[in-house]
Amino acid sequence: MNKISKSEYYSEEREKLSGFGEPDLKAIFKGGQALAKAPQIYGVPTGINGLDELFFLVTSEKGNIVKKPLGGIPAYSVFNITGISDTGKSLMVEQFAVKQASLGEKVAFVTVEAPANFVAISLKLRAEAMGLNFHNFEDNIILIDAASSSRLRDNLPDLLATLSYAIQQFGVKFTIIDSVTGLFETKEMLARAIVRRLFNFLKKFYQTALLVSQKRSGHEELTAEAAGGYAVGHIVDGTMVLAKELIDSPYKAKLYRKEMGQIVRLFRIDGCRMCGHDTKTHFLEILETGLVVIKDPVGGQK
Q: Closest Cα to residue 173, out of 134, 133, 222, 209?
């Protein structure tokens, strides 16, 4: 193939593109350079019984492939937790916040749905149900009240600036947003851009993060689709899908081994870029104490 001159190359490209770009040399890394900057992946305990055992790493030891439990969600991952109402999404992220705060870690909790004082009450109840004294670690949770502040809810740069301040001021390693849907509920066409910017921000600050997102009534219950389409699921590291079903047919009664008229809640991990994970659909239960537990897979034992 004959070598073409730079002017010829640009002349050819002019016919294909609407303009000329400039290379961003800072965005180019050799594999070894990128690996040297990569964080070590480890498990972050969630405080949700049955969930931490569902993630694992596959490594090679003496020529053999070995599967090792991670003991939690992968550190530095950004997970989407989606489902319809009353499936346990907020309870899960509250348990996670309480667990990490009780271990001495700082957690930023961005509340977009309920004012901060109401979320604090809920966190205290979750701690009591987990057998923990909330007052011993209550200040490890830094609440950012985007529910009461329309400036934060409607202006993403201001929200990110506030979150950036909290992360750097308090040494935050874990971030929760409940819910990310509230940041684009009147402008769903912007969902992808908003979630992408959030994702890049959380990665820049090496956060392990959980983003709650709502499903619309037309979405299939056990898919990763949520408000804004598949935008959230495509961008984040993984999705946890929560669902509930009414047992209204003999088929469902047999499948779930439940009686007619009962409600079953279900849980599934829909992909994870950062480590291996269980792919089965599990029963999920909300206990009388308000705690979420992940139970056996549908159709069999673990």
A: 209
Question: What's the pTM?
Answer: 0.88
Query: Within a 10 A sphere around the Cβ of 230, how many other Cβ atoms?
Result: 14
CATH superfamily of 32-297: P-loop containing nucleotide triphosphate hydrolases (3.40.50.300)
pLDDT in tens, 267-297: 999 989 999 999 999 999 999 999 999 999 9
Looking at residue 229, what DSSP letter applies?
A: B
Question: What average pLDDT score do residues 153-157 get?
Answer: 93
Q: How far apart are alpha carbons 74 and 89 in whole angstroms? A: 19
H-helix or E-strand spanning residue 157: helix 156-170
Q: What is the pLDDT of residue 3?
A: 64
Strands 64-69 and 55-61: antiparallel
**Are 129 and 291 in contact, with CB atoms under 8 Å apart?**
yes
The phi-psi region of residue 62 (left if phi > 0; otherwise alpha if psi is between -120 and 50; otherwise beta) is: left
